[in-house]
Design goal:
heterodimer; A: alpha+beta; 6-stranded mixed sheet; 4-stranded mixed sheet; 10 strands; B: mainly alpha; Arc Repressor Mutant, subunit A; 2 domains; 8 helices; 70% helix
């Protein structure tokens, strides 16, 4: 009885024959030929690669210079200031200076409580054992300026070595017994030389430290800014990747018991709260039984549900895992 | 005797049968048209040589089931609400029976249709659906029970 009624009911259903005609029409159409442009498109890329490699082979500096231009410019040439600072910090090296006596002139000024300013040209002669490049000046008061003996300064006194051997330095003391230096060339502007017993290296180091501090501060600021920008970008990207879905709608579409719809026997049955999309993906992996190359996360804020789709760009199955915010799987839908 | 090399004749003969099977599974005329067109397109392009009419029919049923499975699980279909087609029958009894089957879940609809309309044995149904016989038997049994509940024992189901 049922069989006859069901057959009769079905027999009264007629399909539209135009469907069949469309199938024949589609089959009659010639297969689309692949464009030769696509087929030989690799030739352009290969030619470009050969040109680039040839250029690098013939002139490797092309890329080196380009890198330096794009990145942080590298200027290995020290400035005059750096030259002097390096000279001050240089280790002791014994050498014999054969410079004639009269060619190095030090003009020292000693002033303390007296207003009078005494200037005296002191011809110096460098001897073995003197520090290379160290700049020192005695601060004897009164007429004792210039060291002990004409042309024979002691080790802590009137010895002088500068980047420019013909530069003239003016050394002296201020009212507070602090060393004062007045340079006549740009190379020495901003440097204070110590008085005897002082520590030139300390002051020079301090000068360098200040510059280095500024540079380090700038670099740190740039790095922190870049990291913050990256973090913000990553956060925005993560948030953008989470789509929106309606669990109630999906639940109504996927009828329990239908092919590919699973409503029980899940792996995620214990509570493991999902705080973000990464948690959702990790949690959903426990339920994943298909091979996948991509995951997509959706969020239903109303129902407080997460949906993770495992899929592949190539042919293959996909799987949708629905979980609540406690990480408990509620529904799985398999697709293709 | 149907000449199997005449593909148009074969298509004409099995078109309605395949259409009804797909409509039973899809419950949507639009989806059915798309799936049926794909099935017969594959048949027309197929170079396979069939030995018997039964062989052709089995091939078409198998392709129709696979094509409809692919269609249902496509991301497009997942997000689309299937429409229940409003079909009219000449008697209320036919309408009751048909819509009672249509109200069943898809896996039960399919085995009921193949068993009662196509008169296929359980073994063949299992072969076409890619499942084992016991599964088909249990689905058939469960489908009958649900139909009995819907139709309130009004009809003889065997």
């Amino acid at each position: 009885m049922f069989r006859e009624l069901y057959k009769e009911a079905n027999d009264s259903i007629k399909g539209d024959r135009i469907v069949l005609d469309r199938a024949f029409l589609k089959a009659a159409q010639p297969a689309k030929k692949k464009s030769p442009v696509i087929k030989y498109s690799f030739i352009g890329t290969a030619a470009l690669a050969v040109i680039v490699l040839g250029a690098v082979f013939l002139n490797p500096s092309v890329f080196t210079n380009r890198t330096e231009t794009i990145g942080k410019p590298v200027d290995e040439t020290p400035t005059e200031k750096e030259t002097v600072v390096n000279t001050l910090l240089a280790p002791e090296v014994d050498f014999v200076d054969e410079t004639p006596e009269d060619e190095v002139v030090v003009e020292a000024v000693a002033e303390k409580t007296v207003d009078a300013k005494v200037e005296k040209k002191v011809p110096t002669k460098k001897a073995p054992g003197q520090k290379s490049g160290s700049v020192q000046a005695s601060n004897e008061t009164g007429g004792d300026t210039g060291g002990d003996g004409e042309g024979e300064p002691d080790g802590a006194g009137d010895e002088a070595a500068v980047a420019d051997e013909y530069a003239v330095m003016t050394l002296g003391l201020d009212g507070e017994d602090e060393g004062v230096y007045e340079g006549e060339t740009e190379a020495f502007v901003g440097f204070t030389l110590r008085r005897p017993g002082g520590d030139a290296e300390e002051e020079a180091t301090e000068e360098v430290t200040e510059e280095a501090t500024e540079e380090i501060t700038e670099e740190l600021t740039e790095e922190v800014t870049e990291e913050m920008t990256e973090e913000e970008t990553a956060k925005e990207t993560t948030e953008a990747e989470v789509g929106v879905f309606s669990y109630m709608y999906d639940k109504s579409v996927y009828e329990a018991g239908e092919w590919g719809v699973v409503t029980e026997g899940f792996a995620n049955t214990d509570i493991s709260p999902i705080m973000n999309s990464a948690d959702a993906i990790e949690r959903a992996k426990n339920e994943c039984t298909v091979e996948y190359t991509r995951t997509t996360v959706f969020r239903d804020n109303i129902e407080d549900m997460w949906l993770v789709n495992f899929g592949t760009d190539a042919l293959g199955g996909d799987q949708s895992v629905y979980m609540n915010s406690d990480g408990i799987t509620q529904l799985i839908v398999y697709g293709e | 005797m149907l000449v199997l090399t005449d593909k148009k004749a074969v298509c004409e003969k099995y078109f309605d049968s395949i259409y009804r099977l797909v409509l039973c599974r899809a419950k949507s005329k639009d989806a059915t048209d798309d799936i049926v067109q794909e099935v017969f397109y594959k048949y027309i392009k197929c170079d396979k040589e069939f030995e018997t009419e039964e062989h052709v029919k089995a091939w078409l049923i198998r392709v129709a089931i696979n094509a409809s499975n692919s269609y249902f699980t496509s991301s497009w279909f997942k997000k689309t609400e299937p429409l229940n087609e409003n079909m009219t029958f000449d008697t209320q009894e036919k309408s009751d029976v048909y819509y009672a089957v249509m109200d069943l879940p898809q896996k039960y609809r399919t085995v009921i249709h193949l068993f009662y309309y196509e008169d296929l044995p359980v073994a063949k149904i299992a072969q076409y659906l890619g499942s084992n016989e016991s599964t088909v038997k249990s689905q058939l049994k469960r489908g009958r029970e649900m139909l009995a509940a819907k139709l309130k024992g009004e009809y003889d189901y065997v």
